[in-house]
């Protein structure tokens, strides 16, 4: 797939980038967790755009399930256009941004800090405006990312959040599970080496729906964004539940659906949706470690076994990144320079 | 448009349904506001699916800007599949559902109440499971809704939330603005009477993007859902800001974009995006009360003047409902019975 592009190169750097963050970020994560415990927040507010917002979707499940903290997403326009922000007493506000440059994300952080909330920046640039405005910074250590479509900064954002959650309330076994991630991501890359041949079939696809649930709702959102950014095919993300409340009407025979279905508590519901998709004649591309589910898909993108569900979004996104890159290649598009996009987007 | 269908009939009932809720719901809204003041919540949690979730998106801006309360969306799978819900001390939990039947929405309400949070049901059926499990119920008084695609229950949900926000911290002038809504919605219906002729052009459209910002991000989401439900054309909603962070790559000459741009604080940013869309050759369908913006669109769906921005989502959605119904008609589809959907969806 898209060999020689920066997009391809950077997504293959993910095992090394994750290993680097694990080695260099734990102390910082523990120190921030200490400050969070002292502040005893009642809620977490995520401030982010694009792929970083998708990392924030992971944080909702991560902090909700593992740390029992409710998570909200800031609406930056309340701070910038309306200038009537909500009162965030006792909140932990986490700004997530690859570049740390977008003015609206920094504006939310600045006002939150002014109100006395605890603020943490998760960014690849510890010298960025976002990092400077926050009380604490958790750097991604991902190295420079030059392709416009994020890959290694997305997975390192997920890892930074998982390390923070574990530092807040995890066990030694959880740290062991984190340590196994680089090799699981490397295995996901190996298992999908023949991806271009399997993308050919979708050369003329005109739309996709991407479905996940629970922890992997984030994966569905991120892969739908990757597909749009580098192949220019519209792709809409849904939770398996929300999809049943209306959008399922879209499905006619041949409609291509990318299903993200790793093992875990959400697997049963996603697999149940597969039965409905089969009934309606959808064409299913599946990302899973479950052989039985992969066998039912038209195109199978396998995952390595043995990854805990709470960490599966770091691994499940990888075959999808490869597949989106391969689809760009078979369509003759350059994934490094999507039309109309720049690496850093400034919004207000 | 789709004359004689229940969808058409129910959307034309909106002025009457809104007037009924204004007349019959204020006392209840005041009583619930009293209970909310006593509980002094630190955050609002919205529990909803489908169109009701889109009403919840309005609530984020409404309660955030006008009542300074942060708003989060519950992830029901944490309660049902993972059984590890977040701790909601000091939260106001609002369940929104036309039917009040979906088990996952009730499950979140039940657990929230068990934890001691204040729970409010906003539903068209005050005898439903959702209403029974909540501390308080704010009924919609919308009358029976039989078309699968929600219209009058969506706008009455918005109104119920706006009444609650006003009862919590509004002025007499705000109640006057609410009282003017039925006639503004009637005006929006009149201004777009010739809708079928203007939908013809999109008979063979294969995709749409729907864009709003701030209060009207909810309108963009709801109209994208209407289009998918009754025309089976994929339509993806975005905020004007989020759209610039990746999905703008989709836009090539002729790409149809529905732009929701009523007057107010968010207008400038949405109008600025129009310039970018023009540059890229997009085909713009605009919903606005601004003549200058409508003149730049290929298809203009006018709004009456004089509606405050915080209430504009109740009016701005109406031409879009009409337009989606007209598009179903020119495509020979029955908006009352979308394939694969039932009026009540049960998810877990």
Total beta strand runs of chain A: 10
Name the helicity range of chain A. Answer: 40-55%
What oligomeric state do the depicted chains represent?
homodimer
User: From the coordinates shown, what is the CATH architecture of the largest domain in chain A?
Assistant: 3-Layer(aba) Sandwich
Distance between the termini of chain A: 36 Å
**Sheet/helix structural class of chain A:** alpha/beta
* Form type of chain A: globular
CATH class of the largest domain in chain A: Alpha Beta
Strand content of chain A: 5-15%
Question: What is the largest interface, and how many residues per chain?
Answer: A-B, 72 and 72 residues
Largest sheet of chain A: 5 strands, parallel
CATH topology of the largest domain in chain A: Rossmann fold
What is the H/E string of chain A? HHEHEHEHEHEHHHHEHEHEHEHEH
**How many helices of chain A?**
15
């Amino acid at each position: 797939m898209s060999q020689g592009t920066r997009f391809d190169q950077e997504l293959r750097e993910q095992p090394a980038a994750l290993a680097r963050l694990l080695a260099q970020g734990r102390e910082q994560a523990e120190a921030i967790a200490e400050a969070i415990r002292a502040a005893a927040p009642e809620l977490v507010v995520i401030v982010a755009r694009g792929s970083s917002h998708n990392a924030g979707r992971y944080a909702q499940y991560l902090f909700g399930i593992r740390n029992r903290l409710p998570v909200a997403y800031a609406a930056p326009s309340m701070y910038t256009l309306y200038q009537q922000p909500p009162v965030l007493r006792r909140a932990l506000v986490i700004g997530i941004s690859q570049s740390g440059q977008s003015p609206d994300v920094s504006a939310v952080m600045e006002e939150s800090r002014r109100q006395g909330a605890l603020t943490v920046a998760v960014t690849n640039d510890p010298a960025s405006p976002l990092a400077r405005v926050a009380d604490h910074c958790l750097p991604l250590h991902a190295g420079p990312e030059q392709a416009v479509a994020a890959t290694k900064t997305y997975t390192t954002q997920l890892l930074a959040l998982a390390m923070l959650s574990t530092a807040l309330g995890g066990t030694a076994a959880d740290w062991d599970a984190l340590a196994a991630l680089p090799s699981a991501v490397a295995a996901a890359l190996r298992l999908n080496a023949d991806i271009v041949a399997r993308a050919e079939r979708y050369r003329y696809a005109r739309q996709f729906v991407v479905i996940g649930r629970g922890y992997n709702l984030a994966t569905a959102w991120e892969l739908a964004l990757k597909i749009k950014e580098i192949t220019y095919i519209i792709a809409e993300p849904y939770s398996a539940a929300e999809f049943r409340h209306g959008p399922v009407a879209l499905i006619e025979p041949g409609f291509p659906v990318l299903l993200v279905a790793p093992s875990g508590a959400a697997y049963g519901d996603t697999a149940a949706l597969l039965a409905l998709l089969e009934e309606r004649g959808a064409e299913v591309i599946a990302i899973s470690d479950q052989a039985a589910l992969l066998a039912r898909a038209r195109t199978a993108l396998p995952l390595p076994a043995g990854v805990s569900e709470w960490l599966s979004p770091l691994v499940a996104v990888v075959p999808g990144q490869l597949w989106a890159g391969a689809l760009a290649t078979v369509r003759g598009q350059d994934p490094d320079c999507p039309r109309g996009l720049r690496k850093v987007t400034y919004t207000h």
